[in-house]
């Protein structure tokens, strides 16, 4: 914006300056020519009395004295063809001897002719020649001064425009920085109203918007915390019932599920109270393998072939273990919920330069609708709440990752979760964008 304003001022000032300087430069040239011709005319007229009253020898001496000084070169012509001075006769001299006084341009300057009538030796003509150098003496110097003055005016205009643009761009730049900080989750960012009234109004509105966002998030966190606390009572009753079950595989599995549910509720409460707490990492391979062991029993019951590709080396992701568990359960639950029994599926975990990728694909019919529409809450289609994919996406986005939907090699659905490794999260100066809490 500053560059555009500067260019606009340069163009405008240049046009205005040229509109004044060009006529002024031509006027300077005309004045210089008029001054030189007037001086030559005065010099020629000063000899009229000498030519009219003196003999030719006296006139010759006077012409030599006048021509020896600085100024126009003077020559006197008589009607009998004689002359006193260096100039040569021409058609203008013959016309002047007929009794006319005038000036005429020549190849090297201008000639001023003054007719003298009533001289003792007959009509005479005084010719004063002004060279081009004398005609334009001082013009170049004046033009240089005018050019410098024009450049000075343009420079001053650009400087003033730049200062004015800076006073406008600076608050706009600050608004941009504050907006970026808000988009990255820094709700304490506020803009200082400055600049023109319109920009101050925008800054005030942005501050009100930031405060409103903070208030809404605070209310949402309080609601999530209240809901989590309300779950404590039925969760306690569920735990008592689970503890009353006899020892055995079924009882142990139910008690483990209750423990996992209690940890999830406790984490929701902790996150709503400490929303800015940095996320702790976990070993992704172990979490995925544990959840696959859990879902393998259901896969065997529904006659589903499960392909697993997990690395032997530990892979750490910048996500809490319970959130990764919830994301994996959501993706595997979608496979069992939206594909018929007997549909094979595959789970692949790998690490590359971009981070850690978790792929869940199946041999089912694929996505029946636009995959992008499935990422909106509540639009998962008939028989679906649409929250499964959103849970997985929120877990990835929370630490700077992403969720991608596509087709598997067999034409079924494929969901890819990408997580940054902890080193990438700690090295990044940009916190993740705001997402749903709880």
Automatic annotation (TrEMBL):
It is an enzyme of class 2 (transferase). PROSITE patterns: HAMP, HIS_KIN. The chain crosses the membrane at residues 140-161. Keywords: ATP-binding, Cell membrane, Coiled coil, Hydrolase, Kinase, Magnesium, Manganese, Membrane, Nucleotide-binding, Phosphoprotein, Protein phosphatase, Stress response, Transferase, Transmembrane, Transmembrane helix, Two-component regulatory system, Virulence. It catalyses: ATP + protein L-histidine = ADP + protein N-phospho-L-histidine. Pfam families: HAMP, HATPase_c, HisKA. It comes from the Bacteria. Its EC number is 2.7.13.3. It is found in: Cell membrane. One of its GO terms (molecular function) is ATP binding. Residues 226-423 form the Histidine kinase domain. It comes from Microlunatus elymi. It is a multi-pass membrane protein. GO terms for cellular component: plasma membrane. Its main location: membrane. Residues 199-230 form a coiled coil. Residues 166-218 form the HAMP domain. Its cofactor is Mg(2+); Mn(2+). This is Signal transduction histidine-protein kinase/phosphatase MprB.
